[in-house]
Structures are given as structure tokens and as C-alpha cells.
Specification:
heterotrimer; A mainly alpha (182); B alpha+beta (181); C mainly alpha (102); A: 182 residues; mainly alpha; Butyryl-CoA Dehydrogenase, subunit A, domain 3; 9 helices; 0% strand; B: 181 residues; globular; disordered C terminus
């Protein structure tokens, strides 16, 4: 099943590169969840995430000839989404308490959910500086390993590991503080 | 008295009264720590000479507040050298490696401005600056923690306060652990 | 404990698919025409000249890209080094604070 999906993607890519718009729409459908999801957790706002995700696919449309395979496409989308999100975070005014309180979108349904904890974690992720946030999302949302994250974000792998460690320490500390005050 | 203020006063005094003799370079020889790297679960090894610092500086974004702050610090630096190792299990560095670093920091011009040992936490942190003319021209930090060993050497004109303030900007919000009395 | 936190993080960061409406909005933003650039028939000499230019251009681009990659790598290493340094200075301040308290 996975092999078939991968073959379909390679086919869609080939056809999209030859100008087939339906094939391009297929690529959008295949990847929109991961692109939008990364944008949403980076920017914490559904409207900004949608705008960014659309921009990413527009860029893809114009850069299709540079994409060499389905794997490369995944890599390309993550890199462009993360970098665009980091740029936009740096341009906008600092995150306000209001931004952090408004939970842009709850997580996808899960039988093991602890909604309050999950909301808190999303808020803590939203407090991280842009690059650290991107590292955490690529690790725990996109499930990339540190080496792949390093390639996507063009940073040394030790920097990735450092971001992960410090971010987890930060979240652990804040969760513990929260528990002490309860 | 506030710790940070008292340390800054020490530095200011050293700068005002420090020796004006010929400049030692501020660069220390680092021990060969390949054996540590093999055992460490995380390693940070950075070697940036003046040329690489210049190159790095060109890519710092002046519009990004955190990188703009770094740019100000990097101006005037000639080298940044870091060796930092994190271990899964408690670890004690080789005395020879530690002594090799310390012995260089007894050279003229170097002064230890912080030497703090905590038996409870099994932590030993030493901070040295090199005063030349009336400026801090070198920084060395030796930090021995239960599961981390770090040597830092920065060469060139340094603003310690600016450097310390970076922690709140570089990736993780300040945890507010060091509270003011 | 870390594994628990990591698992909770994974759960909390999942998102839903934005749906068919999103796909349609993306397609609506595409330029109206998307045609491959018309192929031109090149003479042999023009083709050779174009190839040589391409080779030099690519070489130049590769050199520029290498320099950029090196500069970006140096920048990341610098940021990491300063992060470590700043953290250890904070450790020093904390250690002195603790000494002063006892």
C-alpha cells in the first residue's frame, strides 16, 4: 500500500512537472495536512497558517522543475514551510498573551487525549523562539530525526539536539511549576 | 549585593587598574578531548577563527533582534572556541585536561573573576578574563558539572554583560532561576 | 518521564487535514496559464555557446552556494557557541548566588 502511494506520488509529480494541473492538485491533497499542520503550530493562528500554506504550494508550483523525486518534494515542502514561518514570526509583533490563550486549533482526535495538558503543551511550544519551535515541530509533529532536521533547517545537528534538550527542559520546568501552583 | 553587579565591579576594577604590558593573545590551547567526544551523548565543538567569524557575521540578520545582538558581540572578536560534552552518566574529567587549561590561565593578564564550587551540586565553575590595556580581550570559562564538561575560550574585545543577556534571546525563554535578592 | 512528555507532545501537535476547500483555494491562486516554455530550435554553434555559458554559470552558482552554505553553517555554530557560553555564565552567577546564601 505504501509502495503504491509512493509510486502515485512520483507519477503525480512527473505529470505536474509536465503541466498537468490535476496532478498538481493531487500533490496538494497529499501534502496539505503536513504543510498546514507545521504552519499552524509555528504561527498559532489558523488564518495565518492557511495563508502561509497556500504560499508554500504556490512556490512549489513555480519551482516544480527543481524537485527531483517524491522524497525530495517532502524535504522541499518542510524546508520552505519552516523557513517561511520563521521569517513571518520574526516580522510580526511579539506573541501576546492573547495569542497564546487563543488555542488556534485543538489537536486531531485521540483516544488517549488529556485535552488540558495538550493545550498547555501547545502553548509552551508557541512560547519557544522561532528556530527552537521549528526544531520541536519537525521532531514531534513530522517525526524527523535530528539529522534530517539539521538538513531541513540547514543547521548543525548538535544545534538541533541542543534546541531539543533545552526546549524539553523548558517545558518540563513550566509543567512542574504549573503542578506546584495547583 | 546583587551577584551580577559585584562581578561587574570586579571587572571594572581590573580594567581600570590592569597591567598595560604587551598583549598575550587571549587564545588558550585546548586539550585533546577526542576520548570525551566518544563517550558523550551530546557534543558541541565550535572552532571559529577571525575569518570564519567574519563569514558568520555576514549572514547574521540585522533585522532579527536576537541576531542583531549577536552581531554587536561578534564585532571585535578574533576567535570563538567551545568544547562542551554532555554524558548520560555522572562523569569526572581527567585532572590533566583540567590542569592544562588552568595552567594557561595563570599567565600574566588573566584574572579569575568567578570561582564557584558547590559540593551539594558537585559543580565547579570558573570564569577568567584577560585584561589588556583597559579592555577585556579574552574570556575563558571552565564548567565541571555532574554530567557536563565545558570549556569556552573567546578571543577579542568582549562585553560580558551583553553576552550573558543573550540567554534570554537565543532560542529558549529565560526560566528566571537566578533571582535578584 | 521524558518519553511520556514526548508522547504527549506528539499527540498535542497533531492537526487535521484542512480539506478540499483548501485544495480548491490553492488551485484558484495558480496563474491562469501554465505552459512549458516553447522549445526553440538552436543551431549547433548557438547550442555550444549556450552549453559553455551554462557550465560556467553552474560552476559559479555551485561556488556561491558552497560559500553560502559555509557561511550559514558558521553562523549556526556561532549562535550555538554563544548559547553555551551564556548558559555557563548563568551557571556561574547561580553558583555564586548559592555561595553567598550559605
Amino acid at each position: 500500500m505504501l509502495l503504491q502511494a509512493a509510486n502515485n506520488e512520483d507519477e503525480d509529480l512527473s505529470r505536474a512537472q509536465r503541466g498537468d494541473r490535476q496532478a498538481f492538485a493531487g500533490l496538494v491533497r497529499t501534502h496539505q495536512r503536513s504543510v498546514y499542520g507545521l504552519a499552524l503550530r509555528m504561527l498559532s493562528r489558523a488564518d495565518l497558517a492557511e495563508e502561509l500554506a497556500q504560499d508554500v504550494f504556490l512556490k512549489l508550483f513555480h519551482a516544480l522543475r527543481d524537485v527531483t523525486s517524491a522524497d525530495h518534494l517532502r524535504f522541499w515542502l518542510r524546508r520552505v514551510t519552516a523557513n517561511l514561518a520563521i521569517d513571518r514570526l520574526r516580522q510580526k509583533a511579539p506573541t501576546t498573551a492573547q495569542d497564546l490563550l487563543a488555542d488556534a486549533e485543538p489537536a486531531a482526535p485521540d483516544n488517549h487525549a488529556d485535552p488540558l495538558l495538550q493545550q498547555t503543551l501547545r502553548r509552551l511550544v508557541a512560547e519557544l523562539a522561532p528556530q527552537a519551535r521549528a526544531v520541536v515541530l519537525l521532531r514531534y509533529q513530522a517525526d524527523l530525526d535530528p539529522l534530517d532536521i539539521a538538513e531541513v533547517l540547514e543547521m548543525p545537528v548538535n544545534t538541533v539536539k541542543s534546541h531539543l534538550k533545552r526546549s524539553l527542559d523548558f517545558m518540563r520546568e513550566r509543567l512542574a511549576e504549573g503542578a506546584r501552583h495547583d | 549585593m546583587n551577584t551580577r553587579i559585584s562581578i561587574l565591579l570586579v571587572i571594572a576594577t581590573l580594567l581600570a587598574t590592569g597591567p598595560a604590558w604587551a598583549d598575550p593573545s587571549g587564545k588558550i590551547r585546548l586539550p585533546n578531548l577526542a576520548a570525551l567526544e566518544a563517550r558523550a551523548s551530546e557534543t558541541v565543538e565550535v572552532t571559529l577563527d577571525a575569518a570564519l567569524l567574519g563569514m558568520a557575521s555576514r549572514f547574521l540578520d540585522a533585522k532579527n533582534p536576537e541576531e542583531a545582538g549577536v552581531r554587536e558581540i561578534v564585532n571585535g572578536l578574533q576567535g570563538v572556541y567551545v568544547r562542551s560534552y554532555t554524558f548520560d552518566e555522572p562523569f569526572t574529567p581527567q585532572k590533566a585536561d583540567v590542569d592544562m587549561v588552568r595552567s594557561q590561565l595563570t599567565a600574566p593578564g588573566w584574572s579569575r573573576i568567578v570561582g564557584a564550587r558547590s559540593r551539594k551540586d558537585n559543580t565547579n565553575v570558573e570564569v577568567y578574563i584577560l585584561v589588556s590595556g583597559q579592555q577585556a580581550m579574552g574570556l575563558a570559562v571552565l564548567a565541571i558539572e555532574p554530567k557536563e564538561f565545558t570549556i569556552v575560550n573567546i578571543v577579542g574585545a568582549i562585553d560580558l554583560e551583553r553576552l550573558h543577556r543573550l540567554e534570554g534571546q537565543l532560542g529558549v525563554p529565560k526560566l528566571g532561576i537566578a533571582k535578584q535578592p | 518521564m521524558t518519553e511520556e512528555l514526548e508522547n504527549e507532545l506528539r499527540r498535542s501537535l497533531r492537526t487535521n487535514d484542512p480539506g478540499e476547500l483548501f485544495t480548491r483555494r490553492v488551485m484558484q491562486r495558480l496563474p491562469h496559464e501554465h505552459r512549458a516554455a516553447p522549445r526553440r530550435w538552436l543551431t549547433w554553434s548557438a547550442g555550444l555557446a549556450a552549453s559553455l555559458l551554462l557550465v560556467f554559470g553552474i560552476r559559479q552558482k555551485v561556488l556561491e552556494q558552497r560559500e553560502q552554505a559555509a557561511g550559514l553553517r558558521a553562523k549556526q555554530e556561532l549562535l550555538e557557541a554563544l548559547r553555551v557560553t551564556s548558559g555557563k555564565l548563568d551557571l556561574a552567577y547561580q553558583a555564586v548566588d548559592k555561595e553567598n546564601e550559605t
